[in-house]
Amino acid sequence: MCSLEKRGNLFILTLITDQDVEHRLNPNLFTSIISALSKAKAQSTRGSALVTVSHGKFFSNGLDLAWVKAAGSNQEAQQRFDQLLHCLNQLVLAFISLPMPTIAAVNGHAAAAGVVLALSHDYVLMRRDRGVLYMSDLDLGIKIPEPFMALFRAKLSPGSTRRDLLLRGLKIKGEEAVKMGIVDAVHDGEEGVSEAAMKMADGLVKRNWDAQVYVEIRKGLYPELCGMLGLATEVIATPRL
Asked: Do residues 190 and 197 lie in contact, with contact meaning Cβ atoms separated by under 8 Å?
């Protein structure tokens, strides 16, 4: 599950450590995160920002494939898998349409859909001393659906960065992820990456940007992705001069 805390204009979304310390994305966790984002959107004002943090070894270990395999039949398993992909699509949509800057504080491993979760944010900070980014889909024999490929095309540099993450299945540590342009910066320890994310968010909050203008510029940056998500752009007719 997750929790949402509001400190002034700063929202803190925390993936809560319970029995599932890997933060695998299942229907319950998807519902919890999307509900929290909806709440943050409803409570947002000019100059808001959101930071996503987690605790434990994993930022997110991807889709809950154990929940899929626990189905009673192959048909039900496929239905469960399709349900998770739909939920992941809705999660990306919720982040891309959130009217505020977003920062992922990746303090542990992020695998497959966990990488999608991280890259759905505007900024990604990573822990230097522990954790990798790993697209396990190729090793598992799972084709990456087109909306998430559009996210990778939008967020990752073409050429070797996309190839090594998606077609080599490399487990990429923090320093290398910075060099490849996947994450913005690395910091030492769980507290270090969380504190850096909060400091960045505080700076963004102080810019006091118009929420609707921010989200429309974001949508304009990723037209292919937004088209697949069904996100239409809106005209802003009240500029602040």
From this structure: no
